[in-house]
């Protein structure tokens, strides 16, 4: 998951993200099939850098900042 319905449309297009609604959720999300390394590399080229990372269960969460 790389964004929600309020995310920058140009950025979601750049990432190749697909907008979807998962059954049971009351929001839309953007999803990519790329590995995290690919997405993080693309975001770095777009001006973002990783600030922190953590694991939540079997999910990894990255916090990024745009310079």
TrEMBL record:
GO BP field: negative regulation of biosynthetic process
Keyword match Nucleotide-binding: no
Keyword check for Membrane: yes
Matching Pfam families: GFRP (PF06399)
Family annotation (Gene3D superfamilies): GTP cyclohydrolase I feedback regulatory protein GFRP
Positions of transmembrane segments: none
InterPro entries: GFRP_sf, GTP_CycHdrlase_I_reg
An example Gene Ontology CC term for this record: cytosol
GO molecular function: GTP cyclohydrolase binding
Compartments in which it is found: Cytoplasm, Cytosol; Nucleus membrane
Keywords of this entry: Cytoplasm, Membrane, Nucleus
Family to which the UniProt record says this protein belongs: Belongs to the GFRP family.
PANTHER family: GTP CYCLOHYDROLASE 1 FEEDBACK REGULATORY PROTEIN (PTHR16852)
This protein's name: GTP cyclohydrolase 1 feedback regulatory protein
């Amino acid at each position: 998951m790389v964004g929600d319905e309020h995310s920058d449309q140009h950025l979601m297009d750049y990432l190749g993200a697909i907008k979807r609604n998962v059954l049971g959720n009351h929001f839309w999300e953007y999803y990519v099939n790329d590995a995290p390394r690919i997405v993080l590399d693309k975001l770095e080229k777009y001006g973002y850098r990783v600030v922190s990372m953590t694991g939540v269960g079997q999910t990894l969460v990255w916090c990024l900042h745009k310079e």
